[in-house]
Amino acid sequence: MRQPTIPVVEGAYFSDLMAQPDALKATFNHLTQSGAWRAAKDFVVDRAWRRVVLTGMGSSYHALHALNLSLIAAGFTPIMIETAELVHYALPLCDAGTLVILVSQSGRSAETLRLLDANRDAAVLGITNTPGSPLARRADLSLLTQAGAESSVSCKTYVTTMLVLAWLSAIVSNRGESETLARLRPIALHVAKYLAKWRHHVDELGGLLDGSRHLFLAGRGRSLATVGTGALIIKESSHVHAEGMSSAAFRHGPLEMLQDDMTTIVFDGDEPTRMLNQRLASQLSGSGFRCSQVGVDAGLESLRIHDCDTDLLPILEILPVEMMTLALAGLAGREAGKFEHASKVTETE
After folding, report:
1. Count of the separate structural domains present in the chain
2. pTM for the whole structure
3. What's the rounded Cα separation, in Å, for the pair 160 and 105?
4. Judging by beta carbons within 10 Å of its beta carbon (0-12, 13-18, 19+), is residue 330 exposed, middle or buried?
């Protein structure tokens, strides 16, 4: 039997990663509760808001990209802005005709508390993993993920947030409840199948990333959630420099600075821009740069994801990035996801 090549500390972060399928199952079951769909539709769609503000910090902010696109397609006028910027520079957006969709996994980060205190007129839909948190208590409508306690870097809370947002996207897109639940139900199984081969994925990605000191993650559309969150968790979990950006932005400058110790990961994404993303990856590889693709037809099994509903794409795309965090930490001889300078909840602005 082939021996593992990349050491992995199976600590708290690792346990959270492996618990993601159960967290998704629990969150899905919570969304099927009687009256949940009707309450969200009445609040978000039927009240005809003049403006919708999407806000959060870190991965909670990045997670909103997919809902932002769904709202635009449905005829809404969303504004996506970090909570820290909203409370200090854009609070006039929060008037009586505005719905604020506020995402905070803890429900009590510094920026979340400041916004809840500063807001006087806008209605708030809160999405959080923490029952009894200030966000859960003070929002006009709360949607709770069911990830359970999370010890370290966001993983369970991120994928369950993405599931709730996919459910909400279906509501604003005027899809039916039964149809939506049928589309969302398989996601936990797809995640479980990918994670069952985690040892292979980590070793394969270790070979791919060995010698890389910098990573670029590039994508478009809903994959912007993945590249933003992916770069964040690589930095937090592995202490390796990573930047996430749109594939288009990558061509406007970063392309020029590629070097031998840099690896670019391009996410194929969905149909409108898949060909553009694949063209970028082909160009980089053809020019001799270190570049790999994440998608349904990826060459490496560790980067290959199951073909799924578009709204679920960011959940599956983040899985290879999570395996990268284990591989990079193992290459550096550290435990992935172990905080040294920060903490799970940001309590200071």
Report:
1. 2
2. 0.95
3. 10
4. buried
